[in-house]
């Protein structure tokens, strides 16, 4: 996703439901306004395409509870202090680091 807003979040959740039809899906995320919008809430619940999606919000202003913050910190450490000729090389370094990671999805 190039930019996140309510529409792109609904699209992403719809894609997720399409990949796992009939399965209950739990999404844990931060309190970005597009994660809590009225329009999104209208797409959730019984009788909707996203009925099997259960949302869990992290506590506000609690980056220590958000696992992605650890990933960002490791990525920044991996690509910092390297002089690159063009910004694209920095992006490639970041993407290469992220692609090298293996995640444990246990809760």
Account of the protein in words:
With 107 residues, this protein is mostly helical. It folds into two domains: 6-60; 66-100, no CATH class. Helices cover 43% and strands 9% of the residues. The protein has four helices and two strands. The protein has a two-stranded parallel sheet. α3 (67-79) packs across α4. The mean pLDDT is 87.
Write the layout of secondary structure elements.
Elements: H1 6-19, E1 25-29, H2 38-42, E2 53-57, H3 67-79, H4 87-100
Parallel strand pairs: 1-2
Morphology call: elongated
Strand order of the largest sheet: 1-2
- Please state the CA-atom Rg, rounded to the nearest Å: 17 Å
Percent range for helical residues?
A: 40-55%
Query: How are helices and strands ordered from N to C?
Result: HEHEHH
Distance between the termini: 25 Å
The overall pLDDT, averaged over residues, is 87
In short:
The chain is mainly alpha-helical.
Give short descriptive properties of this protein:
two-stranded parallel ribbon; 2 strands; 9% strand; nucleic acid binding; elongated; 107 residues; mainly alpha
């Amino acid at each position: 996703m190039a930019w996140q807003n309510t529409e792109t979040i609904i699209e992403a959740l719809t894609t997720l439901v399409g990949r796992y039809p009939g399965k209950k899906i739990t999404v844990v995320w931060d309190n970005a306004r597009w994660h809590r919008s009225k329009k999104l809430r209208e797409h959730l619940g019984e009788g909707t395409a996203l009925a099997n999606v259960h949302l869990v919000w992290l506590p506000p202003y609690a980056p220590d509870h958000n696992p992605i913050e650890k990933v960002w910190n490791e990525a920044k450490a991996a690509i910092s202090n390297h002089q690159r000729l063009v910004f694209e090389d920095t992006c490639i370094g970041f993407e290469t680091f992220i692609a090298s990671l293996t995640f444990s999805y246990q809760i």
